[in-house]
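Case study 2.
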Amino acid sequence: MAMGAARRSFSSLRHRNYRLYFGGHLFSTIGAWAQRMAMGWLVWQLTGEEKVLGLVGALGAAPMTFLAIFGGLIAERFERRNIILFTQSTAAIMPALVAILLIFYPQSVTVSLLMLMVLIHGTVMAFDVPARQAFVVEMVGKEDLPNAVALNSLTFNLSRTVGPAVGGVLLFLFGAAACFLANAASYFLLVAALLMMKLPRMSLAQQRGARMRHPLGGFYYVVNRRHIGIALILVTAMSIFAWPLINIMPSLATRHFGQGLSASLNAAPAEGRTDQSPRAGTANHAQPEQPGQALPTTEAAEPDMAATPMEQTPGGLSAEQQSEAVDAKATAAAQAELSTKDEKRYTLIMSLFGFGAFSGAMTMAYVGRSKRRKPLIFLGISLYAAGVIGFTSTTNLLLAAVPLVLTGAGMLISLVAISSFIQMTVSDRFRGRVMGLYTFFFVGMMPAGSLVIGWLASWLGPARAIQVNLVAVLAVTVIVALLWLGADGDPRQNKAAGL
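Prediction:
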């Protein structure tokens, strides 16, 4: 029975091409999540502002807003494997460059540079994501497509569990540069897997036919297929109000779950505080710099007693200066201890959320061939809501552990169910353009969500901001349920959707 369940959960792996893709994609996304963790922590240490965290997340997804639809059209006009080979190779350049700068010229790494990096990466991904989503059916066929969609999410969320853990170890032992370097190397594992595949080439007739297709044909198709259009409404709501909570996890670790430690540090003497600066290869335990400043140098700042207006005794420091120096060292030590504990909480939060997402993806892989997608969508959103209410209602991370797992599981169950519903419903002729629209609504709307949650978190705090967004998700879910009831009563829409 266990073997039967395993075969059912991993049925798409019987295809050699997909096995190659699965392995390469797994390592590539582990590297991406290791870098994402380091990126969030680096930006937080440079600025200490939730709004900047939200802005960085917005810039990473902004190109999807303008280019994803064209990315879907490109995915129909050219061989998808070649598109992915180009995008994956290009995406490795910026992480490698930032890693080199962090190692040899740490002062040159600013928030502005990191923003430029995520903007370039987002532009590349606007063409990569639609091609990868449309490429799945070429590797596994229609029968195993739902299982492959679930396994893609499983890969993504296994890497979300493993990636932050790997990133945390690399960040703690070697610093952010190691995370960026590991991500740059991981892209070429997927490139190698793609080169090893055996796929039929796109015929000249297919290429000519694809080039005649209208760029806005995906919109017309979705308008006439109400089931798909309604699903995209829900995808948009999840993109704006649910997914961006990941961007403020560093703030959640420090401001929500670290309230007690923060209060004790604030009670410490304020005079003579010094910043501890990171080595180029170690995590930054300094007080946050202002946005746009370069990374601090490798030497820890010491109190400049010669610069003080106090008079020194012939024998050395005065008693008041000695007291200030002791206070400064004690405060710096407290800051370093608090920053280390914040790092551990952040890693734990991301790992719990990632484990939940992994569990949700495994669940969807097991039920992959089930045609009842809508109940799974609403089940996932219910689990997500229960988890959010749970972990935002306590500052005790131990009590929040199970709710964080539920949040990750619910989010992935709902998103995988929506994605596989669309993939199974759409016609092959419109697959690239519809998946471009899916990318536009899911990833392209994230900039708005990142800005909203960043602003709300700076105003209300991270926990309240997530709660406000949850209300919006539930409101849209109710509207979608009512719209689907209306579409279900229309035989023409049911036939068009294959229901």
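The chain has a mean pLDDT of 77.
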